[in-house]
Amino acid sequence: MEIKWYSICNSSKENPGDNMKQLNLGSFSSQEEDIEINQYKILSGLKEYRAEFNRNRLYPYLAELVYLSSQLEEILERKGLLSIPLPKGIKNSAKDKNIFVQIVDKPIENKEYCFDLIEWALPKIKEVIEEAYIFFNFVEESMIIHEVGTPPLYKDQGFLFVSDNSHTVLQIHRFEYSVYSSTAKPFSSLKTSFVEIADALNFDGEEEIVKVNLVKRYNEKPNIAAYICQSDFDFPFDQTIFPIAKRKLLNYLNK
Fold it and tell me: Shortest CA distance to 129 belongs to which of 212, 67, 189?
């Protein structure tokens, strides 16, 4: 069976988040306004994140909120131990035995104001994160991943086929899998780069043929790894399907 190949048109890609009112540490540092006004701004920002999740768009929004939540938790954990270095972007210094906390390089004299705002906001941020993770887990559990062709000798690089049902195509990406060791526990990473797109209607049952063609076209090793990750849903590819597919492959390789 002949496989039709296409190239991606980047000019039509969306730029999600360009108009987004993102929350960051600076959202908790302004004391020029009443705390209730800052609370309103934070709620407004969370409303926009929730709106993106309701559109089935998880990334980069979920990662942003998770990172912000971890930063705020660390600030609260250390608020009574200001001699310990605070997270990046937050500084503390002693002058005449008075502690001044800086968030995003802006001096904060009334640090309790910031702590109160963080303590108020953190549960609300976590609530939105939990809602997003319910959808994340649903999508991840719906995905099926399996190896294509003969099991490879090495699994540190290869091809990842991911179904893009909204366009009835299958995107093919090259991946590199790495495991890093440190004094703590080792951690792994997955880097990907786009290769090309195949017509999904002509792909079913032809996975091995496609893999062989890729090996010939890109002069890859014959026993290179290849995996296909499929889902029945047509959620946004760049914001949801592909990030979760990469996570699925990473977990698969970590086993």
Answer: 67
**Model confidence pTM above 0.70:** yes
The tens digit of pLDDT for each residue in 51-77 reads 999 999 999 999 999 999 999 998 888
Query: Half-sphere exposure of 6 toward its Cβ, with a 13 Å CA cutoff?
Result: 13
Selection from 22, 41, 19, 21 nearest residue 30 by Cα:
41
Give the Cα separation of 63 and 47 in Å (integer): 16
Rounded to whole angstroms, how far apart are CA atoms 91 and 169? 49
